[in-house]
Amino acid sequence: MFVLSELKDTVRIAPELFELSLPEAIKDEINRKLANKVLNNVGLCIALQNIVSLGDSIILPGDGASHTEVIFRYIVFRPIIGEVITGKIRSCSREGVHITLGFFDDILIPPAVLQHPSRFEETEQAWVWEYPLEDGGKHDLFMDIGESIKFRVTGEIFEEASPVGGQSSDKASHSSSSASTTEANKTPYRIFGAINESGLGLLSWWAQDNANAEEGDEEDGQEDENT
């Protein structure tokens, strides 16, 4: 779920930070620049792990700040495809089940990969697994907000928003403004998951099965001791 990414950047240190040691100032600046930001095709940046190397610091003409080329390792959130993660249900919609990990909210489980058969209840705003019973009936299992849920990561999408330049006419200006809003509303990093296999979904669904399995293991252990 978390990986170490080696990155390279030229870090600018303003003159008012010269009283700090260079490594300390660079660490603060890197974290200020990257913490809780999404890097395209890298992931969600969490925290600086360590600095690998520092290049020479230079001061450019007309700029009193120092500029230092830095190679560093950063802790990044980017789950592996196929990895199983436990989160909580943030909300449900016809688009699917929206999951949060607390520090990351843009996780979606589409309807096609929910437990089958499932339906969306408009009044409850919740997805429901129609669990089949042995007598041919069904038992409704609701996916309520706040419930812990285990899912498998099936995909990811990075979207990089690019700035849109202004235009002269009112119509063009309105069009540019709308485009800018669309770009600003883009989610830079989204994860897709699935729960359509045994053992995945709400933890409460499988709690009884897990308890029975543990009881069976304990009984087997006691029989072995008696023999």
Automatic annotation (TrEMBL):
Domain RNA polymerase Rpb7-like N-terminal intervals: 8-64
Every RNA polymerase III subunit Rpc25 domain range: 83-206
Any one GO biological process: defense response to virus
Compartments it resides in: Nucleus
Keyword Nucleus set for record: yes
GO molecular function: DNA binding; DNA-directed RNA polymerase activity
GO CC, alphabetical: RNA polymerase III complex
Keyword Cell division among UniProt keywords: no
Composition-biased stretches (Acidic residues): 212-227
Entries under SUPFAM superfamilies matching the protein: N-terminal, heterodimerisation domain of RBP7 (RpoE), Nucleic acid-binding proteins
Biased composition annotated in UniProt, kind: Low complexity: 168-180
Residues annotated as transmembrane: none
Family that this chain belongs to: Belongs to the eukaryotic RPB7/RPC8 RNA polymerase subunit family.
Its biological purpose: DNA-dependent RNA polymerase catalyzes the transcription of DNA into RNA using the four ribonucleoside triphosphates as substrates. Specific peripheric component of RNA polymerase III (Pol III) which synthesizes small non-coding RNAs including 5S rRNA, snRNAs, tRNAs and miRNAs from at least 500 distinct genomic loci. With CRCP/RPC9 forms a mobile stalk that protrudes from Pol III core and functions primarily in transcription initiation. Pol III plays a key role in sensing and limiting infection by intracellular bacteria and DNA viruses.
Protein name: DNA-directed RNA polymerase III subunit RPC8
Organism: Phlebotomus papatasi (Sandfly)
